[in-house]
Every structure is written in C-alpha cells, then in structure tokens.
Amino acid sequence: MQEEKAKPKLSFWQIWNMSFGFLGIQFGFALQGGFMSRIFQTLGAEKDTIPMLWIAAPLTGLLVQPIVGYISDRTWHPKFGRRRPFFLFGAILSTIALFFAPYSSALWMAAGSLWILDASINISMEPFRALVADKLPDSQRSFGFVVQTLIIGIGTWVASNLPWFMTQIGIPNTAEPGVVPDSVKFAFAIGALVLFSSILYTILTTDEYPPEDMDLFQKEKEESKGFFNGVKEIFKNIAGMPEVMLKLGVVQFFSWFAFFTMWSFATPAITEHVFKATDTSSLAYNNAADSVGNYLGTYGLVSMIFALILAFVTSKVKINRKLVHMLSLFAGGSGFILIYFISEPWMLHLCFALVGIAWASILSMPYAMLSSSVNPKQMGVYMGIFNMFIVIPQIVAAVGGINFTYKFLFGEEVIFTMVLAGTSLILAGLANLLITNKQVTHDG
Questions:
Q1: In the prediction, which pLDDT does 88 show?
Q2: Is the separation of the CB atoms in 15 and 149 below 8 Å?
Q3: What is the C-alpha to C-alpha distance for residues 346 and 359, in angstroms, rounded to an integer?
Q4: What is the CATH number of the domain that holds 82?
Q5: What is the pLDDT of residues 209-245, one digit of tens each?
Q6: Number of domains the chain is built from
Q7: Which of 155-159, 168-172, 350-354, 369-373 shows the lowest per-residue confidence on average (mean pLDDT)?
C-alpha cells in the first residue's frame, strides 16, 4: 500500500460531525429494510416473490457505487471539497424517493420507488465511508468507523420504531385493502426530513483536505477523462484489488446474504410464525408488523450500545479487528437461529439484541480493515468496489438463493428464512480465519 502523509488526529466531535449524515442515510435504510416488504405484501405480493421485488436495489448499487467512488476520487472543489457534492446530490434524490414510496398504488410503483431510493442513498453512502479514510490516520480509523456505527444504530432504532410510534399517538394503522396505512406514510415523511437535514449538517460542519499535490492531481484527472477511460480504470482496480479485500469479500458475502434475508422475510416470517397473522388488511397483521419494526429497532439500539463500547475501547487501546468481527458475527447468527425456538414474542428482543452486535461490527470492522490495505488516492473507488461484496450476495439472494436454500436445507415454513440467515452469519464469522495480515487486522 502506498504511504500517505501523516494526518492529525481529530476530536470526537469532529468525527461525529463528519459522520452525522449517516443518521439520515440509516433512516432511509431502516425504513426500507423494515417496511418495504410490508408495503409489498399490502399491495398483494406473495411471500416467495418478495426477494425479486428487491432486486433492482442491489443491481443499482453494483453499478452506482464504484462509479461514484471513482468520480469522487477525481473531484475537488475549493468550497465543496471532494465527497460533499455527492452527499448533497444523493440526499435530494433520496428525500424525494423516501417520501413518495408509501404512496405507491401498485407493486411496480413500490419496486420502482425502492430502486430509486436505494440508488440515491448509494450516491451518498460510499463517499461517507471514504471520508473517514480521507481524514483520519490509521490509528483512528477503527474509532471513526465505530462512531459512524453508533450514529447508524441511533438511526436504525428510531426509524424502525416510527410506524409503531405513529400508531401510539393516534395515526391510523390500518387502511383499505391494497392501501398503505397512514402510520407508515407519516413515518416515511419524517424519515425523508431527517435524511436531508442530517446530511446537510455534515456538509456545513465538515471540511476536507485538498490533494497533497494539486498539479499531479489535475494531471491524473485529465489523463483519466472520458467514459471509457473511467470504465477501464475501474476494471483495472477490480482486477488489481488487494488480496485482503478478496478475503474480506467472502466475509461480506455471507454477512449481507443474512441481512438481505432478514430485510426481505422478517415481517412475513415473524407475523406468521409468532403472531399467527397473515391477512395484510387486518388489525392483527398491521399491529404485528409494527411489532416487527419494534424488534428490528432493538438490533439498532444494541448496535448503538455496542458501538459505544467499541468507541470507548478503540479510543484507549488497540484491538484485534478480526477477532472482534468473528465473535460478533457468531453472536448475530445465534440470534437469528433462536427466533425459530422462542415461545413468547418479547423474547424476540433478546434475539435481535444478538443481531445488533453483529450489525455494529459489520458496519465498522470490515471498513477499518479495508482502509488499511488500499492506496489512499484510490480510497473512493475501492470503497465503491468493496460494495460489490455487499450487493452480489443480495442479488444471489433475490434471484432465488433464499427461496431455494431455506426450503432445501430446512423446510417449507417461512420462519426457516431466519434460520438460514443465522447459518449464513456463522459462516461469515468462520471466513474471518482467512484474513492473516496483521497490518489490517490490528489497529495501526
């Protein structure tokens, strides 16, 4: 890896400000992850068709993130910097898509809204990852990504509980068949407002370091101009990705297969298996679906607490990133599998608490390890390429990987999707044993 110029250490609040936009990004992801399947079911989707309705989102991410990362590496504006223009553009599009998603009147409209929403969030998300690596020395990167995870945990917890909270203050939680309840519409509107305002906060409170050699930067930018040059360079970077990145890709594959399974099937699996509710227009189903959002909020809350613990630890001592990640994934896998065996609904909080430990680690440790293994000048494009290992498992899951695997391994009941998610996380934990480079597994 190319040596980079020494960077000053930043304070907690400087790191907080540069990561605060992730609060809004996670509002968007939590609302789509917790409630888009509910919207699909309300509009008449069968359970087995739900993953395919999600497929446009990861397909778009596969294309968008490397391109955005590549372009942002070659962007510099004296006032707006390198990554912040992409924050703003993505925020505007995401806000619009998030607001209108629950007003869909047909499945194709809902799937289209999800596609636009996910693509727009992706435009903002990876530059946020790259910004941490841009601004922090290696010794602070675990801490920086953990602070991001803390903010993500807050966003997950609050956003996942919004429909439930709307119901508690008297907003209707049921509607005519085929119509999304007002509680969900209000939740998405609040999410849209938080998304835009939090990203704007980061844009206004954070500056960026200019290129170390502006003349060389401009020369390299000119040499890489043009669509085909850009595509060629991205493929060159893919072919030349560090060995550590490939090994992390195996870990990421099983991790994100598990969470895509949760986002697609948690609502139908838990409402049916735990609450025995299947009529999507009934009060029983909609109350159960609100409860699922509440349980999903638990994994956000626990990921926030676990991130706080990690933030304290990583600010004081060096950690073994690989070991922390492996044990965290084992915890999350156990939580998913235990959902099948619970006897009381409240026990779901315990299951998703274990999932929250895995989520906190997934959002921090792989990025900390990756950022220590790549050329700092290519941080944006490699963060974007790394997203391939997030979206490819989601595409595999969407085109039949979930439906075939859980039925083949476990049985026809939809609750077995959660057992599949748990098994996948445990495999992800074991895959950490492939990573042996101490430069990336330990804090610098």
A1: 86
A2: no
A3: 20
A4: 1.20.1250.20
A5: 877 767 777 776 666 665 566 667 777 777 777 788 8
A6: 1
A7: 369-373
List the single range of 54-68, 72-86, 187-201, 386-400 with lowest mean pLDDT: 54-68
Residue 114 lies in a domain: yes
Look at residue 1 and tell me if it is in a domain. no
Host domain of residue 62: 12-441
3-state secondary structure 389-439: HHHHHHHHHHHHHHHHHHHHHCCCCCCHHHHHHHHHHHHHHHHHHHCCCHH
Q: How many CB atoms lie under 10 A from the CB of residue 273?
A: 17
pLDDT 10s digits, 246-287: 899 999 999 999 999 998 899 999 999 999 888 888 888 888
Query: Helix 107-135 crosses helix 12-19 at what angle (to 10 degrees)?
Result: 150
Tokens of 325: 């990640």
Determine the residue type at 167: T
Residue 377: other Cβ atoms inside 10 A: 17
3-class DSSP assignment, residue 442: strand
Q: Report phi then psi at 368, rounded to 5.
A: -65, -40
Q: What is the pLDDT of residue 95?
A: 93
Give the whole-angstrom CA distance, residue 332 versus residue 436.
23
Domain presence at residue 253: yes
On the CB side of 101, how many CA atoms lie within 13 Å of its CA? 34
pTM equals: 0.73
pLDDT one-digit tens code per residue, 46-61: 878 888 888 877 777 7
Q: Is 3 contained in some domain? A: no
The count of residues in the chain is 444
| Cβ contacts of 261 within 8 Å, gap of 6 or more | 397, 402, 417, 418, 420, 421, 424
Give the integer Cα–Cα distance in Å for 344 and 348: 8
Residue type, 34: G
Q: Among all chains, which residue has been given the structure tokens 């040499």?
A: 223
